[in-house]
């Protein structure tokens, strides 16, 4: 083994992790602070290979057009559209930012990372049909959703999604909604394009380096990274650090010792897809068809028959089926979960089990399911599916946030949460869906919150990138429709 070498480099910002979060932040910072030197550090040999990779993430282009878990039904039967509207607003911010990058030749052909794919919701049974009707009524009152159609007709289902219709009894009570404004996003490709752009504008990207420590060094943070061969150590010093390392964000923020991470824990959930191998079947489906989640299922396990475009190739997948592993990353270690348990969060970690027995039961049933049982779940959405046309694919890891409540008990959350230090010197993203699709909003909010003294100087640039920044498109139907039309034109989408 070669002698260990060490070097120290000072920079303006260090971004840990080479996924869509760090890539988006790097792209934003190169516009807002073009004179900054930015360092991205990634453990793997390339960027966008963990949760941002197309085969690893459970949903792409999250805009709440079809995801039923974003529109819960209240005890009185009413459907609340608030969360869905908020997620769609955030996705429109991402669309505006991507449009800006395309229009200003920062990134290349948008067809390489975003395509028009209708978003559909499909349910069966009288109660579910009534719910979907109420959901449609609640959402279409909003200009971001007003092109969504609703039908209970089998003929319309056959027109919109023939694979879902064929072989289904015409006596079955069904309902379906369809929005033509849906998209599919290849976040792996987008990540690589954003970092390529940033690399040409003052950002250095170091792959094959694992961050092993994170601590204060005077007024800076010191980020210690070790090469994958173990022969070299680099220390990056910077006054600002962002931890966008997916499941690894929790242990890295714990290493930082900031007070704001105390009490937080993580619960990892893995998954698996069925991927279609028959080109004729793939070409006959053009939609993301989402159903209702099983009782206790996490959001990443909402079943969907999903048209994807990954690295330019059209594909069709179904799932995901939930699983469990103590790893915090697909390429992580089996000790990740146990190493994350600290005196500061052990109470919260232990407290989440009793209120989440439905989740535990669901995961146990998924782990015990046979291949035949999993295929029967596909046939609920595609009655004439044939086993020889499908193959299993292992999805990525998700680490759901366990957050402390007011009584310092643990609460299992299924969204994305930002952790920022009181002095604004370090921030990190925890959690999963819908983080990738809404990352532009999340990171703009983080930056403006952590650098309040710079907001005035950034304002003009931010509004040029995101014209709706600081407003709600939902409050202005004309502005909402104009934004949808403009970004559709810039990104080559159908509208």
Automatic annotation (TrEMBL):
<dbReference type="Pfam" id="PF06039">
    <property type="entry name" value="Mqo"/>
</dbReference>
<dbReference type="InterPro" id="IPR006231">
    <property type="entry name" value="MQO"/>
</dbReference>
<keyword id="KW-0285">Flavoprotein</keyword>
<keyword id="KW-0274">FAD</keyword>
<comment type="pathway">
    <text>Carbohydrate metabolism; tricarboxylic acid cycle; oxaloacetate from (S)-malate (quinone route): step 1/1.</text>
</comment>
<comment type="similarity">
    <text>Belongs to the MQO family.</text>
</comment>
<keyword id="KW-0816">Tricarboxylic acid cycle</keyword>
<keyword id="KW-0560">Oxidoreductase</keyword>
<dbReference type="InterPro" id="IPR036188">
    <property type="entry name" value="FAD/NAD-bd_sf"/>
</dbReference>
<dbReference type="GO" id="GO:0008924">
    <property type="term" value="F:L-malate dehydrogenase (quinone) activity"/>
</dbReference>
<protein>
    <recommendedName>
        <fullName>Probable malate:quinone oxidoreductase</fullName>
        <ecNumber>1.1.5.4</ecNumber>
    </recommendedName>
</protein>
